[in-house]
Amino acid sequence: MQAFFSRKIKPTFRKRILGKSFLLICLIGYCFLPSLTAQVYRQLEEDVIYLKNGSVIRGQLTAQEVRAYVEIELVGGEVMRLEHAEIERITREAAKYTRIRLRLSRSYRPIIYRSPRIYQLISWGFAANETQGQPNINSHLEYRVAYHLTNFLNVGVGTGLNPYEGGLILPVFGEIHGDLMRTKVSPHYLIQAGYGYGAGGSWRHREFDGGYMGHAALGATFHTRHKGEWIFTIGFKMQNTYQVFEEWPNIWNPTGQIQEPAIVEGNRRYQKIVWQISYAF
Question: How far apart are alpha carbons 222 and 278 in whole angstroms?
Answer without folding.
Answer: 10
